[in-house]
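cron nightly-structures :: item 1 of 1
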Amino acid sequence: MASTSAKSFHIRSTSFPSKSHPNLARVQECLHLVKVWEASPSRKAQLVTRLGHLKDLYASVNAFLQLPQTQQALCGKESLVRELMDDFLCLMDACGLMKDSLVQMREQHQSLQSMLRRGDSRLESGVSAYHCSRKRMKKDMVKCLRLIRNMEKHVSSSNDNLDLIDQVFKDVKAVAVSTFNTLSMVISGRKPTQSIFSRLLGSISSKDDEDGVSEIEKADVAIFRLHGSSSKAGRQEDAREAQRLMIELDVSLREVEMELEDVFRCMIQAKVSLLNVVAGC
């Protein structure tokens, strides 16, 4: 990550006081934490940490939006305010899709685990139902990625003429989109790819881009193997392996789900603060 652009998270001011307000400093601190996370060689399987940083970031954005200086500056930036409102809608829709998929996956795992414990003769039907459910999840993640990547069309390739307010919100958008892009890929079981925002935040090496993808893929493979297992011994071994992987994965999914719920709540609060700014202009 030594090649990370020096421009990433660099903020200049043309309309805001030169001395940072504590709320603005908190936004910058949260952005810095994500930058450090991106540069860490041990990012694998730390998506919960990433979501925690995003939650803190939006909490700090909410406080930043309540500053009189911020409100005054935004009243003169109609196009930025419209873009921010659109961004909130897209990101909250994407967040909702991901939350629903995580809940659905955990429910399906619990159902399959119950069948395995009881030795239910309908197990193959349960696996088929899970397979169909995963297909729907992947379609939902395609919708999610479409929502996220539509936001990239509004991003300038240059940061040279941005003032403080524009730069702050551009960096916040970069963090949110990069995080949601990774998470949607994780849920679908696909390998995360670099978007415009990922490149803006810094180059990510492919070997560190797994972030739990293999954990979900392994569980899927083990579950699908239960369908049509041949020998009794083979079925028992496959069942034990599938149960083990689902139990381990359930812990990770629950943590991600809880953090995502907190992110969603912080986004709602920040959106309300933005609406209050609009109402006061």
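cron nightly-structures :: done
The chain has nine helices and no strands.
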